[in-house]
Amino acid sequence: MLAEPKGRKKPPPHLADLDAEERKARLVELGLPGFRAKQLSTHYFARLADDPAQMTDLPAAQRDELVSALLPHLMTPLRTLEADRGTTRKTLWRLFDGALVESVLMRYPGRVTMCVSSQAGCGMACPFCATGQGGLQRNMSTAEIVEQVLAGARALARDEVPGGTGRVNNVVFMGMGEPLANYKAVIGAVRRLTDDAPDGYGMSARGITVSTVGLVPRIRQLADEGIPVTLALSLHAPDDELRNELVPINTRFSVAETVEAAWSYAEKTKRRVSIEYAMMRGINDQAWRADLLGDVLTSYGDWGWVHVNLIPLNPTPGSKWTASDPADEREFVRRLEAKGVPTTVRDTRGREIDGACGQLAAAPD
Ligand code: SAH
Q1: Which secondary-structure segment (H or E) carries 9?
Q2: Whole-prediction pTM value?
Q3: Protein residues with CB under 6 Å of any ligand 1 atom
Q4: Other C-beta atoms within 10 Å of 30: how many?
Q5: Are residues 225 and 293 in the same domain?
Q6: Among candidates 76, 41, 80, 82, which has minimal Cα distance to 58?
Q7: Of 31, 49, 70, which closes a domain?
Q8: Strand bridging mode 273-279 / 119-121
Q9: Distance in Å, CA 36 to ligand 1 centroid
Q10: Which of 5, 40, 77, 349 has its CA 20 to 30 A from that of 273?
Q11: What is the atom index within ligand 1 of the atom nearest the CA of 124?
């Protein structure tokens, strides 16, 4: 691995930041042969190689130069925690400037999901979320986002995850950060992940979920991209009074405006939207709020545009909130379903390794 660049303001440019033409142009700019870009892309996205010594189709004399031009070292794993007999793996990464982010690989029978970060820290300040407490450090680059997925892809290809060799099937932007506040880099990452190999990783856009607090103009922009990713909206309350507290951006975009944007995303893309709702005891889990949530969602029709995903709250250190009573959770589900809203309760994989929500990066020791 090459030394990390010192004193830089931005992550070093990497081929995953660029499309196929831009990769060529970058090599030419550096006085290197443009056709090598395709070979480098094949190593990265198709062969899932990360050791320059294996790239024997590159001339030995030029190999280091080519690799540092398009495949610079981006991030170092500081720690990996495992749960579920190794099928849940959370990695804490240190980026070039010391910023810490995390990603989680979750293997289920027949599929693998990677949960990735899109920012170091987060500026949205949701009080129940560990990442929200530290504020935003910076946006991640497209390549830093992609590299989290590729690191998982390499581990799977090398049979390092119990269950045999495999590929990443799903990517969820539910790690650190607000993906729609880092719009351009996130869209770049979605394109790289879905472009066919060797330009990209070649996964289906339908396997990608972008989760947001509800930046309304960005939801509309996403609907116009023509990429069929799944949208998840972190609603957490059906009324403005409570949502203003739990998701502070709600003071800018109300529940009504936010749900309307989610509905029009579903209408335009024909993709079912997922409403995320972290169940907090005595805060947002009352039966009347379940009824209100059902009414708010079905007011846009019941053609199956939406489903609710209840998340048992993962309490953060020092937080005044705890998870709901299981009986209250069951009643909440029952009431939503009675209104015709399909509802699931998220499984809590990796809870013992703080698999949710920035807790490892917040307290790395
Ligand atoms: N900023 C984006 C994505 C990151 S968080 C968003 O807010 O959607 C992914 C999901 O985890 C969000 O629904 C978020 O509200 C939820 N979450 C955050 N902290 C949590 C906690 N302590 N327990 C349960 N879910 C939490």
Answers
A1: none
A2: 0.95
A3: 124, 126, 128-129, 174, 178, 211-213, 234, 276, 278, 311, 313-314, 316, 356-357
A4: 12
A5: yes
A6: 41
A7: 70
A8: unpaired
A9: 41
A10: 349
A11: 1
Residue type, 341: V
**105 and 66, same domain (yes or no):** no
Complete DSSP assignment for 124-147: S--TT-HHHHS-EEEEPPHHHHHH
Q: At 81, list the tokens.
A: 């925690």
Res 319: pLDDT: 80
| Per-residue model confidence (pLDDT) at position 361 | 55
Phi, psi values for residue 87, rounded to 5°: -90, -5
**How far does Cα 275 stand from its chain's mean position?**
16
**Residues above pLDDT 90, as percent of the chain:** 87
CATH of the domain at 65: 1.10.150.530
Q: Which of 32, 53, 70 is the last residue of a domain?
A: 70
Could you list the residue range(s) of the whole structural domain that residue 32 is in? 19-70
Is residue 95 one of the residues assigned to a domain? yes
Distance 136 CA to ligand 1 centre (A): 15
The answer on 223 and 165 residing in a single domain is yes
Strands (E), the chain: 75-83, 88-95, 100-108, 111-115, 119-121, 136-139, 170-173, 208-212, 230-234, 273-279, 306-312, 343-345
Q: Is the dihedral of CA 214, 220, 221, 225 positive or negative?
A: positive
357 catalytic? Reply is yes
Supply the CATH number for residue 202's domain: 3.20.20.70
Q: Is residue 2 part of a domain?
A: no
Mutation probe of ligand 1 site: the residue of 242, 311, 316, 324 with most atoms within 8 A of C-beta: 311
How far does the centroid of ligand 1 lie from the alpha carbon of residue 357, in Å? 6
Q: What is the pLDDT of residues 276-332, one digit of tens each?
A: 999 999 999 999 999 999 999 999 987 899 999 999 998 887 788 899 999 999 999
Pocket test for ligand 1, best of 122, 210, 211, 235 (most atoms within 8 A of CB): 211
